[in-house]
Amino acid sequence: MKLAPFIGTSPRTIPRKINQRNDGQAAVIDSYAMTAIWKHKFGRIRVDPMAHTVIVGIVNENHHWMLVVMCPHEKKTLFLDPLGEGKGKTKVCLQSTRAFMWMKGCKVSGWTCSTLPHNRQQDSTSCGVLALKFAENILLGEAIEFETSQKAVHELRLDIATSLLRESDDLSRLCFYCGMEEQDEEHWICCDICQRWYHHQCVQRPPVDKPYLCPGCT
Q1: From CA 193, how far away is CA 176, in angstroms rounded?
Q2: Where along the sequence do coiled-coil regions lie (predicted)?
Q3: How far apart are CA 14 and CA 27, in angstroms?
Q4: Which of 47, 71, 85, 143 stands 20 to 30 A from 11 (CA)?
């Protein structure tokens, strides 16, 4: 099962459960928007950081998925790379999330970026599965050191697929960048590869008379 179409939506089911117990505690930034933040392209990402205690998003860099968890009130970011966190990527994570928080009007003096102990992926394809599992366990307050064998990853894939079929929202009227619903006055554009729709303004108003590739397909 290819996870790319689901990375941006699957984590949303966990914050919904948490927020039923703790109003507004958790929020999710779509993977396309989180990847844009990673590249310092903030656009129209509609989230008020200080309204949440934790904000999760999954980054795609060169077809590799990594988890970013921002804690605005604690002024820190958690960064989890299924392959292991190098100094270079940790620095990028710190700089990009701190810049995003500053752009949103948050105080960023003393902002830090760290990680948590976790098992690493043992193949070249399970990064998306592990990033989703990291997000789920962190949001639920559970340990993130779990089995990453081929059999265990296969079971995780099945769990993710089952959860998506059971709990995912209807996303057909949402912009895949900002996650907001369709508005009558909005102009839209469709990616010629993945066929996802975006608010024209959210993706920097590309020419409508030329083929368009979305952030996830470029």
Answers
A1: 14
A2: none
A3: 10
A4: 85
